Amino acid sequence: MRSYDECRLLVESALAGQLRGLGQIPAGLLEAMEYSLLAGGKRLRPALLLMACDMAGGSVEDALPFACALEMIHTYSLIHDDLPAMDNDDLRRGRPTSHRAFGEDVAILAGDGLLSAAMELMLRAACAMGDLRGTRAAHAIARRAGVTGMVAGQFVDVTQEGTAPTEDTVSYIHAHKTADLLTAPMEAGLVLAGAPNEQVCAGAAYGFHLGMAFQMVDDLLDVVGDAAALGKNTGMDAALGKLTWVALRGVEETRRDAAEHIRLACGALACFGGAETPLCTLAKETLARVS
Amino acid sequence: MRSYDECRLLVESALAGQLRGLGQIPAGLLEAMEYSLLAGGKRLRPALLLMACDMAGGSVEDALPFACALEMIHTYSLIHDDLPAMDNDDLRRGRPTSHRAFGEDVAILAGDGLLSAAMELMLRAACAMGDLRGTRAAHAIARRAGVTGMVAGQFVDVTQEGTAPTEDTVSYIHAHKTADLLTAPMEAGLVLAGAPNEQVCAGAAYGFHLGMAFQMVDDLLDVVGDAAALGKNTGMDAALGKLTWVALRGVEETRRDAAEHIRLACGALACFGGAETPLCTLAKETLARVS
Questions:
Q1: Predicted-complex ipTM score
Q2: By residue range, what is the domain housing residue B136?
Q3: Which of A72, A122, A159, B119 is the most exposed place for a label (fewest CB within 10 A)?
Q4: What is the CATH number of the domain that holds B195?
């Protein structure tokens, strides 16, 4: 089975071509979209999609448009989250955020454009398949990214700022704002590979637990991390009155909760019988960032 | 064949159910999305989709999720267009715009949510079909709404404000910002009905010419129309230095150009042999608003 690094590099080398392959995009719009899309990053979500597809014996080549689309969705969400009316952040991956570099109007449209491009890319690929696997994979991603998924989590995060944190609310935000976009690639990758429904569900459970742990680690890094190494400002969550797991449970308890989610993530992979090793390694490395 | 009014009412009565049928949306997010989605309006785009599907013998029932999705896409584009960083408008259909009613952060997310919901709705319906018609229809809509379509037109419109108008630029903006979202329902409705490719192309030509005329009429109404009757401020294009057909060609020439596009739109329907009458009537009524 392909490693995370192999999958990450496949995505990295395909992203620009997938976007430009959609046709004649106005130069300034393309520039703004690529500024954020091609700014590096871990490519965690698209790599997960390729790894899940690979694990179940699917074609990584066929899965690439879906993987790139998911990274476009992740990138659009970052651009809109950073806007002055939202988190008002001016640094992302060590560079000015989209609205600082291009203005708010262009940043809003770059975000809209990336979400639209993602859907178009997946639908084009789905049309080219002889069956509905691509359509079902695109549906899984749209659902996890949508109004009962990522957008819902973002809405609750933005509108609850400054209120007293409750475990229910913080769990909801983490589950939807973060974990849904790690669940989506597992579902989509497995559906593309034609995996049976029980494996798709097991993959989704892995994605959920990895996502919950991932957000806890992110919250921890905002408290204990180094701005230069991270390429973004730290201490922002507290400054914005964000509801975080750390604010609710403290640093040590959050470390323990994250470890438990990683244990559950790896456990969910049992039904893949050994082929899951790179996914389990990836989960453990996520945790190691704050250990 | 069903009339525009019949199709409009079908859409009107289905919109809320289609959105809420996606699952548990956070109450405040749902409220903001419905505020804009259920604010009336002509429902031109979704009605066109149902009329096109009906004309080619397809099931209007099967086409409803796609029609509602298109109206959600149209609505998201209005919410984002109205934002302070874009057109900065505070009145839409006689009521405060989304960001005036709910704040900028919620308005941005309501727009993102409506675009996401549209895609999810189409993909869910496409999954339930036994073939790829739904996938192809969704692809047509995503493409026309995307970075070589509506978003491209909006980008050029926003970034060219205040520069000297050229016919090429204004045509590009009208073709993509407006006409693409009237071409999309013709393509999608006909694809859903299983119409042959030559009919899909003829329908697209109708949508393009109707869209060009429609934008010219809209530009004319901004100059010669009545704010109270329109439910929005007039004179905004000139105030914002917008590139309009009227600014380029004057009122009388724009009236003539619009009439020519309507003539071409009706002509494109010839291959439907009589079944096209309601669409031709609709096109002529569009023109009558400024005659």
A1: 0.95
A2: 4-288
A3: A159
A4: 1.10.600.10
